[in-house]
Amino acid sequence: MAGLSLYFEDGHDDLDDFGFDDYGSECDGIRITAFLDAGQDNLTPLGRLEKYAFSENVFNRQIVARGLLDVLREFSDNENDFISVMETVARMSEDGEPTVRAELMEQVPNIAMFLHENRPNFPEAFSRYLVPIVVRYLTDPNNQVRKTSQAALLVLLEQGLMSKADMEGRVCPVLLELTEPSSDDDYKIEAVAIMCKLVTMLTKDTVEHLLLLRFCELCSDVRLFQVRKVCAANFGEFCSIVGQEATEKLLMPKFFDLCSDSLWGIRKACAECFMVVSNCTSPEVRRTKLSPLFINLISDQSRWVRQAAFQSLGRFISTFANPSITGLNFCEDGTLHEIPKISSEHKVTTSNSSNSRNSFIDGSPDSLIQPRSEQLQSTSDLTGPPSHHPEGNSSTQPKEDGISLGQPKHSAPLSRQQMDDCTVFNSFNFWRSPLPDITQDLQLLQEEERDEVIEKQDETMRDTEGEGKEDVPSLDAQGPATSSQIQKVLDCLQPHLDDPDVQAQVKVLSAALKAAQLESQREDADESVSESNGSTGSPTSDELSAMSELSLTDAQISDSPSSSPVLNVIPQQLLDQYLSMTDPARAQTVDTEIAKHCAFSLPGVALTLGRQNWHCLKDTYETLATDVQWKVRRTLAFSIHELAVILGDQLTAADLVPIFNCFLKDLDEVRIGVLKHLYDFLKLLHADKRREYLYQLQEFMVTDNSRNWRFRYELAEQLILIIELYSHNDVYDYLRQIALNLCSDKVSEVRWISYKLVVEILQKLYACEAHDLGLNFINELIMRFCHCSKWVGRQAFAFICQAIVEEDCMPMDQFALHLLPSLLSLSSDPVPNVRVLVAKALRQSVLEKPYFKDPGSAYSDELEEALSELRMDKDRDVQFFSTMDPNRNVMDTSALI
User: Where is the Phosphatase 2A Regulatory Subunit A helical domain (predicted)?
Assistant: First the structure.
């Protein structure tokens, strides 16, 4: 009803037709459907609706359109009347006045919701009457009507009010028609925009069969750059819906064209959605095709494109993350959890009730196949036992040495029952073809090689015996694997290359094979050089060339994935560009806030590289942590706890703790970042390191601006969580005083949350059976609050007592002995606000405990006497809370008699 006053200013006299003198505005609360009430005419309500719906006065028609929802509610009891109203709505949709049509369309989402709630009564009303109106208005000649229709359509889809049949049979055909090459430009641009917005609300099948090919055509629209720009901006949404296969087959060529478009705005839009597109492609496409394409964008001639590319660089790098490398994965709530590891120091075998299959290859401490540092990726429950083994199925059981599979760091070995549960509930067994059992083959190969080595050693010793030569050193039977051993294992794994875990293992074996072959070549070259030196005294030119080639090969080995994981995780060019974001020159040529974008995405880049490659980012992180812009440091402060999870306890203690300590002394804008996640960071530290921060918690009480009460509120919330990290003695010695100071804060919000902190501290003391400390704390609460000269303190004591009872912080006999007398003494407090909380505490909490319900309780008479006085209190609120039934939350009126 907004804007009705504008009509009044024009001096409309038609308000008398509605049967009342002053129609008023929306805020006046007068019914907009008052024209349906009986007036001077003899028309029925339906007749009166018909009269005003098609009145010659535009204002009357607008009022009817604006009040359609209320009209439907009034006629919803009678099906025939309701249908008549819907027929009237359908005819009103053809009104020649655009403002009437726009008013009508604004009410369509509300009417649709009403019909949805009453679907049993009117199951087909929405599809029959309203959908045709929405579809027709998409091609309305008036721009305002079209915009209103598009907005209504989005709302209908977001609320799930439009059926799939209506979308595929009515809406999509209209959009396809409007996006034809021969369509009007304005209609086409609008249709493309609405189609791109709808795609996220449609099913994959609908998008693939109806919209995908047309979208590909629109991406190549030569005539209208606005169309290409809309397609580029929404390219990621289409990729996310249709999936990897369609993205790589149909959409990727279009994306390459858009990334090289002549208009910088289109290239900028591509850079902004690059991460979403990358997530929809395979690792191979991401590495070989998208990475070079992104490098082109990041060196684009347009500063705006470069700016968008650098802002997306960290997010694009994060798409290369592999849980098998990072050792971490995300839970459904978005938190990072470490994937349980498999110990590489012991052998494991497979055991199953029905069959036996090998799940892990590890022959000895100097095993031929060294497992990856992070082996498991659980997809169902990251905090529980692993769902499967990367080299086999989940039926694997530990050997007699007691080492369990999937044992999380710092946790006890899994029991046999836990391992059985892991096997029972693991769906991995049901779709994965079993890996070959090569443990015995591997052992036989090693035994054969060992026998050959021993024979050669014996022959050599027999040949050299008695000749005065030095004894040949004994070879280790458990020595490094030879190239022939590795090659045989690779041959066994070839039939199973479709398994991603086998692929990863083959990569490791291939690197080991290459290293073994190069080592063999080195030995041959050394032997050849030695023989040459023995005859000529110096190597020939050909020998020098061979030696230099071997040296070059060694350099290549040092950069191989097995020894330099960075090159195996992300392309080096991407990493170099990311590290350059801290260069001051970038701020001048690209973006003044480029360092902030670097800081924002650093945890994602660190997660992608893995903690073994933290050395690549360490200098960059330290540079950002000392940036002169507090926004950069604030960004790091808010994410330092997540980075600690990524790096692990050792790197956190060495590299993050010093920076964390600097943030604690920074500006309040930076300190709030570490304060909001103080518990999350401290729980990752070792107990001795964590205890050092007990001395610094008091510093959070001091802020740059004393009026920044939210800082102290956040401190109280964090202390409630931190209590569990420390012993009861530390809580009493350090956190108790902070809590009491917060309870005396000038801001009520800080005080109320601090009262909960006091309760948690008391609960900690009694849970640890530190009754002496608990009693000391209680006496301090009584002196500080119950006997406080200010009514706020006495009110706080009543609230604390109620919370103690509700949370069962201490035995009720101890509460009755030490706290209840002080609480009862406040029942006659001169301030009503104190007596209200006393009444509430006694009636809702104390009397509900079995200890006090017993009529023979020593305190039952005192409680009843106090409540009787409160029931007769002169303050109505005190009376209410002292007589209220806590179970029904209503006034016990009989108690007032």
Answer: 89-318
Determine whether 609 is exposed, middle or buried from the number of CB atoms within 10 Å of its CB (0-12, 13-18, 19+).
Answer: buried
The fourth-level CATH superfamily of domain 183-312 is Leucine-rich Repeat Variant (1.25.10.10)
Question: Between 185-198 and 143-158, two packed helices, what is the crossing angle to 10 degrees?
Answer: 10
179 DSSP 8-state letter: T
Count other Cβ atoms within 10 Å, centred on residue 285.
Answer: 16
Which letter, b or e, does each residue of 245-258 get, where b requires 16 or more Cβ atoms within 10 Å of its Cβ? ebbbebbbebbeeb
- How is residue 639 written in tokens? 């994410």
Give residue for tokens 């055909």. Answer: 173
pLDDT tens-digit series, residues 248-281: 999 999 999 999 999 999 999 999 999 999 999 9
Nearest-5° Cα angle at 104, 101 to 106: 110
Residue 310 has a CB neighbour count (10 Å cut-off) of: 23
Residue type, 781: L
Residue 436 CB: number of other CB atoms within 10 A? 17
DSSP H or E segment with residue 240: helix 235-242
* pLDDT for position 892: 40
Q: How far apart are the C-alpha atoms of 389 and 386, rounded to whole Å?
A: 8
Task: Please name the residues in contact with 360: beta carbons below 8 A apart, sequence gap of 6 or more.
Answer: 342, 347, 348, 371, 389, 391, 392, 396
Please give the Cα distance from 101 to 257 (Å, whole number).
Answer: 41
94-121 pLDDT per residue, tens: 888 888 899 888 888 888 888 888 767 6
Closest CA to 442 of 503, 501, 505, 352: 505
pLDDT for 428 equals: 41
Sorted by where each begins, the domain ranges of the chain are 1-161, 183-312, 321-453, 570-685
Structure tokens at 85: 């109203």
Q: Which residue do the tokens 């200098």 mark?
A: 619
Q: Are strands 884-885 and 396-398 parallel, antiparallel or unpaired?
A: unpaired
- pTM of the entire predicted model: 0.66
Lowest mean pLDDT among 332-341, 386-395, 443-452: 386-395
Give the Cβ contact number of residue 658 at 10 Å: 11
> CA–CA separation, 168 vs 161, rounded Å?
14
Question: Where does the pLDDT of residue 619 fall: very low under 50, low under 70, confident under 90, or very high at 90 and above?
Answer: very high
Q: What angle do CA 335, 341, 346 make, to 5 degrees?
A: 170
Distance of CA 165 to the CA centre of its chain: 34
